[in-house]
Structure formats: structure tokens, C-alpha cells
Amino acid sequence: MDESFPTTLVYPAFRHTWGIFRVTESLVALFLGDRGRIDDPQGVAVARLKERDDPAMNRDDDEVTLYAANAGAGDILYNPSMSALAAFGGTEDARAGLLRPRGIAADDDGHVFVADAGHARLVHLLCRGGRLTFVAAFGPPLFSEPFGVALDRSKNAYTTDRARNRVVITSYDGHPSGTLDAPAPTGIAVNDSTDPWSCFKARAVYVVCRDSAEIWRFDGRGQITARVRAADLPGRPRSRFVYLAIDYCDNIYATDPATHAVHKFDRNLVYLTTFGRPGTGDAQFISPRGIAIHRRFGQVFVVEQGGAQYYWVGADLRFLVATFDPGRGEVQVTLFPTERAFVRVGIYSRGRLIRTLVMRWTTEPGPEQIPWDLTDDQGRRVGAGTYAVRVEIEPTYSSYTHFKKKFERTVEIR
């Protein structure tokens, strides 16, 4: 993997997708005909349905169901099986006629919730036997302008209401149980401490607010414990956040349609990296909107203008620096992984490995420092000259064993 190619997210292995990792309107039309129109796609949700699970085997554990809000067409696009697509909207059930649907969330029991913004209501659907059906709708006076939806494992729905400057917490049957104050909120994600696929198991609610300008983190008591501003992202003054997702390591991903990218933060909203740039090529987006992550296996689905893309969580280095400190008589190797990764660091002289600093170190995302005391593997001090610092990273998550990435820097010892 070339060092310059971004790998915070990576495309799945060919044998997993047969090379199909980008959904276009023409591909959807092959399945849906006239209903295959993609018009202003918004939120997306992913679930591993229990009814489709065969407990006797694990080969099907990564077979997930996706639900995408197609706002301009007023319907939900989803896959009732691994080889089919379907659309749900007013033609299937008049009660579920959707107008500008935005956020969407789903659980493994088949419950699906849609922020029906145009009708100022939260719509509850159920997926059974590969078919979506209408259950209920909760509208005014509970909501004025619902936008984002997230679910916890206690069967509560968290819905942002942009017009009322709050997050409304309800049971699945629509009974309100609390609110969080947030100015002009849009996207939302919930980390549940009981989720088996949450690494740190810290309860938190993440909300995009102030008209997409900030992300706030609320703890389990409803207190704001962290914030990040889009305007403060390095080199991205035009950034804005829309939808959110969380991976197994509790990192936060935020889509940014303004700069055609996805931003990544740790669980405390410390900025890690930005992935993507404008375009239709590899590692590029056109106005990304909804994002969903199947946390068990790290499958990442990003909805963009006119389609969607499928990734796995990968690993990359935001930077790598090797600096000689004559006063301390050592070289400081500083690296910044964007994801938990296995790291190997070696020192080379004229192409020959002379010192292994770390062999298979598991590092967390963020800056790390590794000192080299200028000795080789036999403990002998090296002489003056130019040395190469080679770093190899390998993901620990979904793309584990599928790729490694190598980096190299030189350092002059005087």
C-alpha cells in the first residue's frame, strides 16, 4: 500500500464484494426499475437482523441489512436479502407516506425509526421476512422538525428536533422520557455501555448542533463533557458536520458534505484525521451525507449524492517524524495512528535492519513517541550517518490481514 494513499477507511477485499463497493443510481435501477431513482439521499442505518441469523454457523454473521432515507423521493431503500433491493414509502402503506425523511436508525430485532421531517413526526417501521411494514408515527406536539435518530439497547429512541433546540428521548412506543438541550441539532449517535461491540463501554450521546457547526458529547447524566467545532479542523475552514456514526473502538465519524469528506474523532472528540476529497475516484466523495457502521466487523457505509460507498475500518498514520536530539543522545520517533493498530518500527542502515524498536505493538489512535537510544540489537552504539526509520502498521479490526502499510523517514546522526 503506497504511503500517500489514504487508508483510514479501505475498500473490502475483492472476494468479499466481487469488486462492487460503490452503489450508483443505475445499479439501483437494475433492481427497482422506475423506483430506482436516488434523490437527495440522507441518513443510513445498518443492522444484523436476528431473524436472518443461523446460530449453527458464523459465515453469515457479516450479512447485514441497510436502510437509507431517500428524501427527495420520499421513500426508504433497503436490501431484504443479500441479493435484492426494495423501496418502502407511501405506495406500500399510505400511513407511511414520507416527506423529506432525514435520519434513520435500526436495531437487530427489525425495528426501524425514520425522522419524517416534512410531516414533523417520528415513524416506527418493522422489518420482518424481508419486508418493511408501518407500526406507528409520533408527531406534533412531540416534534416540530425531527432530523437525526439513534437507538440504545434499552429500546429508547433519541431524536433531534432542530426547530425546538433539543433531543427528545422516547420509548419505542413513543412515550417521552427526557430531553437534552442542544441548539439546532441535526445528526446524533448514541454509545451504550451495555453494547457488546463497544470497546470502552462509556455511555455517551453525540449530537451535531449549532446548524452543523459543532459536535457535543453528553455523558450518562446529560452533562456536556466535550465539544469540537468544524471551523477548528486543520485546513478545513468551510467544514460542517451532518451525520454521525461510532465504531468498535468508540471513535466518532462525522460526514462533511461541504468539503466532501469524513472526519474522525476519538471518544472524547479529539480530532484524529480527515478521510476523502472531492471526486468520484477511490477515497473520494461527492457531498457525503448519512454514515453507518456495523460495529462488530467494522463495515462502513457512506451515502453520498447520487449513491453510496462501502468501506472497512482501516488504519493510517496522520504523520510520522524522526528527530535526532544530540543533547539527549537519542532519536525520537513520533507517529500518529488514526485507529488502533499493530505497529512495527525498525531502524535500517544501508538497507539492513540493525535495530527493532517495537515488533508488534498495539497502539491507540493519537500521537505516540518511541525513543531510539542509538544502539543496535546487540547493544552496540551506532556511528554517525544517515539511518532509515521504517514503520509498518496493520489494522486490528475489520481489514485485519487484508493489508499492511509501510512508511519511511530518514534521520541524520551527527
Quaternary structure: single chain
Number of helices: 2
Structural class assignment: mainly beta
**CATH fold topology of the largest domain:** Neuraminidase
Assign an overall shape.
Answer: elongated
State the separation between the terminal residues, measured CA to CA.
32 Å
Residue share in β-strands: over 45%
Number of strands: 34
Global mean pLDDT: 93
CATH class of the largest domain: Mainly Beta
Number of domains: 2
CATH architecture of the largest domain: 6 Propeller
Largest sheet: 5 strands, antiparallel
Task: Provide a brief overview of the structure.
The protein contains two helices and 34 strands. With 414 residues, it is mainly beta.
What descriptors fit this protein?
2 domains, Neuraminidase, mainly beta, four-stranded antiparallel beta sheet, 2 helices, five-stranded antiparallel beta sheet, 3% helix, single chain, Immunoglobulin-like
